[in-house]
């Protein structure tokens, strides 16, 4: 069983394969995806790969134009891991070249790791989140390796006992440090519209389809931290957190402090599709 990959070679995860002059290592000059595999079946893999190519395009990084070949290497990593329930991390960087800010003339580097996924903390009973200023750059639609503001905000939340930090820019909620945020008000699901300020979540796409299936209005509009605190329900989603109910925002209990009926219905449907 092998659980890592670097530039065409399947390797052990602790093998030293990244040279010092690697741009992901030195500059964070690259993009990534996290894909979850359930019982051997990758969930929405084509959507993840599409987003990876779009992120790469946005930073002028050229991944193998033969998408089928690229996808096959991802599938081979899954196969070789010997795991059936796993998270696959895929990273593409601008390659290996002596450190210089300008783009090098060299092939991109591709690395992958496969890890069994853990059960989701607070997935059923609900989690608490902290509101935090969104200190990221203007192009958060790119799934860039540069995650310093996300890391700092998430750590601040963790140190105060919260699961996630919910980011606020210009008085409006954008998203979590590694999740999409939704509120439920008067039986409608409300989430921030897609823009350069948020990542277009793959789980968000799935939730939108599920809402349609359940005939629950899915409204894409901005909302404030106060509207979040006064919402009937709050939940967050991501590949790794799936659909996680939020029962407390900045020490304010949401509604009666238990996961609401819309969140529960979505979770139930999500279970069906995965
Ligand atoms: N993060 N917003 C941000 C900033 C994210 O980093 C993520 C996912 C999401 C949710 O996207 P998706 O539903 O496609 O996973 C939203 C991954 C899981 C990570 O960085 O580990």
Automatic annotation (TrEMBL):
Pfam families to which the protein is assigned, alphabetical: Aminotran_4
Entry annotated with the keyword Zinc-finger: no
Enzyme class of the recorded protein, top EC level: transferase
Gene3D superfamilies on file: 3.30.470.10, D-amino Acid Aminotransferase, subunit A, domain 2
Family membership noted in the UniProt record: Belongs to the class-IV pyridoxal-phosphate-dependent aminotransferase family.
Keyword annotations of the record: Aminotransferase, Pyridoxal phosphate, Transferase
PANTHER family xref list: AMINO-ACID AMINOTRANSFERASE (PTHR42743), D-ALANINE AMINOTRANSFERASE (PTHR42743:SF10)
Cofactor: pyridoxal 5'-phosphate
Gene Ontology terms for molecular function: D-alanine-2-oxoglutarate aminotransferase activity
Annotated catalysed reactions: D-alanine + 2-oxoglutarate = D-glutamate + pyruvate
InterPro entries: Aminotrans_IV, Aminotransferase-like, BCAT-like_C, BCAT-like_N, Class-IV_PLP-Dep_Aminotrnsfr, D_amino_transT
Protein origin, superkingdom: Bacteria
Subunit comment: Homodimer.
Name of this chain's protein: D-alanine aminotransferase
Known EC number: 2.6.1.21
Keyword tRNA processing attributed: no
